[in-house]
Structure prediction request, 115 residues.
Amino acid sequence: WPSEEASMDLVKDAKICAFLLRKKRFGQWSKLLCVVKDARLLCYKSSKDQQPQMELPLQGCNITYTPKDSKKKKHELKITQQGTDPLVLAVQSKEQAEQWLKVIRDVYSGCSGQA
Prediction:
């Protein structure tokens, strides 16, 4: 969970949240507070931010996990939404990746029945 000074409104009712690294262009990584809430992935630059830097609806998305295979590579989750660039997030471990996969899959299986 994020630090104590994190705005509790950001994580209130969140299904899962953690600081993850987001892959940017040219292979750089930036640290973001990622929160799954209301069938959306919200990414904040800081736990003090009120507005997300990025918001991705999880309905109809595709998520894949790529395990770490070398010292340089990270455990990666790739979230693909039709018509948008894939979002690549780095997680700390296989266990953390599995937690995120489960939550995101639960979210979009729960909302796939709604048109």
User: Anything to note?
Assistant: The chain has one domain: 8-111. The CA atoms of residues 102 and 115 lie 22 Å apart. The domain at 8-111 is CATH 2.30.29.30 (PH-domain like). Residues 94-111 form the longest helix (18 residues).
